[in-house]
Amino acid sequence: MSDMIHGFDALVRFTKWEDPEVRYWAIDRLIRHYPEECCDAISGFVLDDHDATPAMVARDLGEHGGPKHHAILLRGFKLLRGTVPGHCLQSLARLGYPGTVELAGTVLHRGDLNDAAIPIIV
């Protein structure tokens, strides 16, 4: 990708920026241009304070991540609200996490179950 202004390392540096919009921009570019390679660099951003970043990261980890990303996806599932826990659960299922069914059952006890919170797992 020689026509890119910012390479992988520069984009990873931008993920450490204080402004959440800059982090979102950098993570979005990493996922678009380096979806497999960036998993380790972006995994912690499942817990980012930007509105769209956590779901985007959880989805990418589900498609390109591995078992070493189970822990951060579990944290996202347990700590976050809205649609992000559903994306984390879906990613865990795609990555073959052995406790996915039991984890999904815990949603009934959380009190925030709605149609938007848990996407359909395929």
Features:
about 120 residues, mainly alpha, about 0% strand, globular
Describe the secondary-structure layout.
Elements: H1 8-14, H2 20-33, H3 39-42, H4 53-64, H5 70-79, H6 84-94, H7 100-105, H8 107-110
Structure commentary:
The structure is a single chain. This protein is mostly helical. 56% of the residues lie in helices and 0% in strands. The protein is built from 8 helices and no strands. The longest helix has 14 residues. The protein is globular. The model has no long low-confidence stretch (mean pLDDT 89).
Summary of the model, kept short:
This protein is an all-alpha fold. It has eight helices and no strands.
Give the strand tally: 0
Beta-strand content: under 5%
The secondary structure category is mainly alpha
Q: Which stretches are poorly predicted, pLDDT < 50 over at least 5 residues?
A: none
Could you tell me how far the N terminus lies from the C terminus, measured between alpha carbons in angstroms?
A: 32 Å
Roughly how much helix do the residues carry, as a percent range?
A: 55-70%
